[in-house]
Design a protein that fits this description.
The protein is of the alpha+beta class and about 190 residues long. The protein has 8 helices and 4 strands. Strands 1-4-3-2 form a 4-stranded antiparallel sheet.
Amino acid sequence: MRLVTGFPGFLYRVLGVRQCRLIAVSSSLVFLLIYALAVGMIFILPSPLPETIRTPLVQLILEGPLGQVPWLVIYLNRYWVLSVSLEAALAASTLTVLFGLNVGALLYAYRYAACRCLYNVNLGGLAVLPALFSVFACCGGGLMTTLLFTLGLSGFVTSILLPYGRVLAAVSASLLLANLVYIYVKLKRDIRN
């Protein structure tokens, strides 16, 4: 069996520990739910669907600009909707995986690598903030849009953020990846000393 080294080997070791794998998966799922609610992939309709429409109802939209299609819309009941386009799904899955890996790597560093070098270095939580303000064309009003509405800024800010939704998600993904690499480098340096 060949030993995996470097950054992929580090991730392999982190996910090889049952407790780290469990915390990575569970934190990923919690993050995905929070992210979906924050950007509006899961939202409440302003008025309920008519009684004549049977729910749950699944629609797959295949016509439209690239990135926005395929667009999956699921009416869970008369009030709740799950709406995800291709770009929103890619952003959510990338951020979810990176967030879970960050949490698992931090647990690994604290508990299993005997590294106390990361006390003040958890950028993972802050790295997701730009992504929470992502606005995708597929999504309804999320919690962040609602927050902006209550501040009286929604129309203005949403019109500014809409073209940059992908950029904000990419900034968060880059920060999460950088934090993961930083944990790896810090652990590698601490283990050598």
